[in-house]
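Dissemination and training. As part of the outreach component of the grant, students in the summer workshop were shown how a complex can be specified as a set of sequence lines and then modelled as a single object. The example used during the hands-on session is reproduced here so that future cohorts can follow it. Participants entered these lines:
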Amino acid sequence: MNKFETELKNGNFIVSECIDCKQIIWPTSDFCNICHNTTKWRNTNNLGIIIEFSKKNDEFFGLIEVEQNLRVMGKIVTDKIPEINQKVILKECSFNKTPKFIFKTITN
Amino acid sequence: MKKVGIAGYGSTKFSKNKIPIEELLVESTKQVFQTTSNLSQNLIDGVIVSTNDNSKYLGAIVSERSGIKPKISHTIEHLCSSGTNAVISAFSYIASGLADVILVTGGDVIGNPGQVLEWDQSRGELNHPIYWGSIFTKAYKRKFNTTEEELAIVSAKNHKQAIDNPNSYSHEPYTISQIMNSKIITDDLRILDCSYPCSGSASVLLASENIIKKFTDTPIWISGIGQKTNSASFTKNDLLNLSSTISASNDAYAMSNTNSNDIDVAEVHDAFSVCELMAVKDLGLTEKSSSTEFIRNLFNTGDRKINPRGGLIGAGHPLGATGISQIIEITQQLQNNAEKRQIPNVKKGLVHNMSAAATSSTVLILES
Ligand SMILES: [Zn+2]
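and obtained this result:
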């Protein structure tokens, strides 16, 4: 497992950011796909917004924008029907063959 | 640049049977030999295989099994659009003069590894295509107020058209209400809104203008090619446009010196019902109506202009064979040889093949 996967398994969602142009490179990479400089790891603030969502069985899931250039698919825990642009917080993350992201809605 | 055309073709039936990839590829290749006039092994300069299968050295294996000793032989993989990618490689070898005749054979076995792109960590654990299919569908419904019935019409039309395709995996005449009441996959997808992975193989013989008349009196020319890859990860997509398709179709129309009004028939990549609604608009085929009105009108009038062989939803989706099967359908239509599926007076046709949630698209223009 690489650093991203190990950290994710420990509950830390870290991303790679270019040391020069400061872009987030996602999925993670050790170099920047714009300027090809090296990247460094940094934490995300674990907050996001819902871009779109659907529901499978009793679980909502959706496309979440965590930061600019950083969107992930994850489950959404909520007691009401989510809304577009609604704020979410990362409730849980892990890694087992694939990353796993679970977000929780924040009431505006 | 030499002109390149379709000189022959062959296809297996698409099925849910687990058949080894080598057997599938050899079967559709054998049909090319059986149905193409004056074709002998020594005339074939290249054998290109299109597949997502993990088997190795398939170009050489198909060649040996079919008695060909080609100069050029290799495999092309590009997920669901492997087939059209392999045809474009063959086109390029012939157009450049490096080869005169190339056999392209594609196929996949049900349950093949091409259905999930493991690299794409942005999909998290939700890496099955039904998740991006649901997100696309939900965004489309939200923007255009599309109803479940309007989505079901796409599937009903394609299943109905697949009945007249002897190679399709399904010949069930599903009604709109059967589709709307089929098994729930997610809140935004029913099972009959999804294309079905299956086993199958399709092959085409490409030849240069120098030799093609030896094989057929009615060659079908590839006059336009466009391709665009925007990313590999789904989460970088625009949810409301197939932007790779828009770019690829602009290039294909320009190369063939044509425009969308001239297209008489099209095979589009209906991985899910919503993809057909998005594709017909982004390819410029809906004229002045909305996609849903356009498809509803085709369905109500029995007009087979879009996906006459039944598309991926009706015919099945053996990934590496799909793009080639689409090309065969348009070829048959242009040769006035599509039997019950024949659309009258077709002069130009289009093939639209995508990969991995529309991150990459290929568009081809074919004409007689
Ligand atoms: Zn940079």
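The longest strand of chain A covers residues 47-56. Students were then asked to discuss how this feature might be tested experimentally.
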